[in-house]
UniProtKB/TrEMBL annotation:
Residues 232-364 form the SET domain. PANTHER family: SET DOMAIN-CONTAINING PROTEIN 5. This is SET domain-containing protein. Residues 55-64 have a biased composition (Low complexity). Residues 45-54 have a biased composition (Basic and acidic residues). CDD domains: SET_SMYD. It comes from Lasiosphaeria miniovina. Residues 1-77, 136-180, 201-228 are annotated as: Disordered. SUPFAM superfamilies: SET domain (SSF82199). The lineage of its organism: Eukaryota, Fungi, Dikarya, Ascomycota, Pezizomycotina.
Length: 402
């Protein structure tokens, strides 16, 4: 397993253990931690790890990625690098061990030496905050992540948190370790107003309701919410865009979560071959039944056109991978990967979708990019389709490059 794989695995496992939140919905307005008054101190990885992650992490051109408005869902592995930064956030209020900040970008947060960008949830940027560790300068904190002693502020026993699953630093076995983690939600006031899951209390602070409980074994857990059934929202059937697609079975309204699905396979473009053969026969059959592009690529082609980027790799889904693409004016569904639940979630991002309409996500920002990555000429009706001449020119240019 590469360092990148190990890291991303630990990230996911860590989130499962520590958080009810963790929607990794990407956002093209990702605040750069170098903006404003923020002083970046470093990233977690050592130089060697970084080199390796560069070599092994997939590029954004290999899987679905959106990059448009605030509802964009561009999944980029780089966004999940552990950004550690000296940062402050103004006007923060503490609620149930979590922080809600009303300003963005991140500016100043006096009690922390590191902020870890976890992902997004309902358009809210979710961070984990590590309080300042005594007797260590900022630089030492970064370079000595692995050796840094746990602080005593937030005790978690190492039985709860195996060392290998802690992306914030190692935890010695058989000791009481403190992860000193807090969760932080950063939200601008404008988007709060459109977020159905948030409300503002009398003090002006935003409150965010937790996601409904979800686990693969919903039926086994009495405390969980009822299983989320996508069939209550849409059906999969032939699409005029080609092959199969998803169609609303009733009127759907903005913000409705229509799909929560765990992947059949999480992999990388480099390890797909071996990962595929570790699957059960049923899962392999489900992958082979997904849309297969023309050409000689075989299984590689199936992964290329059906996978979603997730932290550290790509994932294939039985249902989510059936959604067709539409460009910005026509797309009506946004998606994000919920790291905590290892689940892809789709929700409606337009005012209303009438019963019978096709539900469409955005794979890429323009028809040229779609052709280059996925090999199809977009016919969504919301873009100017590529002409035959443009396609020919693309092939000529590609031929000249290679
Ligand atoms: C992930 S699959 C989507 C589901 C697929 N239609 C199926 O039958 O499983 C992606 C493929 O669907 C087709 N497709 C999706 N959106 C399209 C669009 N807007 N215009 C034309 N073809 C599209 C392309 O062949 C693309 O490679």
């Amino acid at each position: 397993m590469s360092a990148w794989d190990q890291f991303s695995q630990s990230f996911v496992e860590d989130d499962r253990q520590h958080s009810d939140h963790g929607m990794a919905t990407p956002d093209p307005e990702l605040p750069k931690l170098t903006e404003g008054n923020t002083t970046p101190i470093s990233v977690l990885k050592s130089k060697d790890d970084k080199e390796e992650s560069k070599a092994t992490s997939p590029t954004s051109s290999d899987s679905f990625s959106e990059s448009d408005d605030a509802g964009g869902d561009a999944l980029s592995s780089s966004q999940f690098e552990p950004y550690f930064a000296l940062a402050d956030i103004k006007r923060v209020s503490r609620m149930d061990n979590r922080y809600v900040a009303l300003t963005r970008p991140i500016q100043a947060y006096p009690d922390s030496d590191a902020i870890f960008l976890k992902g997004y949830r309902n358009g809210i940027q979710v961070f984990q905050v590590r309080p300042k560790q005594p007797n260590l300068s900022a630089q030492e904190n970064v370079t000595d992540q692995a050796e840094a002693p746990p602080s005593s502020s937030d005790s978690v026993t190492s039985q709860d948190v195996p060392a290998s699953t802690d992306p914030l630093g190692s935890v010695s076995p058989n000791t009481t370790a403190s992860l000193g983690r807090e969760e932080l939600y950063v939200k601008d006031e404008a988007s709060a107003l459109t977020d159905p899951a948030a409300h503002v209390d009398d003090a002006g602070d935003y409150h965010v309701s937790p996601w409904p409980a979800f686990s693969k074994n919903d039926e086994d857990d009495e405390n969980d919410a009822p299983p989320h059934r996508y069939q209550d929202f849409f059906e999969i059937r032939p699409s005029p865009l080609g092959g199969l697609g998803a169609f609303a079975v009733r009127d759907l309204k903005h913000g409705e979560t229509i799909l929560i699905e765990q992947p059949i396979l999480c992999t990388t473009h480099f390890s797909f071959g071996s990962d595929f053969y570790k699957l059960s026969e049923d899962d392999r059959a489900a992958i082979l039944a997904l849309h297969s592009p023309d050409g000689p690529d075989g299984i590689d082609g199936i992964v290329r056109v059906n996978s979603f980027q997730i932290p550290g790799g790509v994932a294939l889904f039985q249902v989510a991978s059936r959604f067709n693409h539409a460009c910005a004016p026509v797309r009506n569904v946004r998606y994000g990967y919920d790291v905590a639940r290892n689940a892809m979630t789709f929700s409606i991002n337009v005012y209303r979708v009438p019963r019978g309409a096709e539900l469409l996500i955005m794979y890429g920002s323009n028809p040229f990019e779609l052709y280059r990555i996925f090999g199809f000429r977009c016919s969504c009706g919301g873009c100017v389709p590529l002409t035959r001449r443009e396609v020919d020119r693309f092939h000529t240019q590609a031929y000249n490059i290679y």
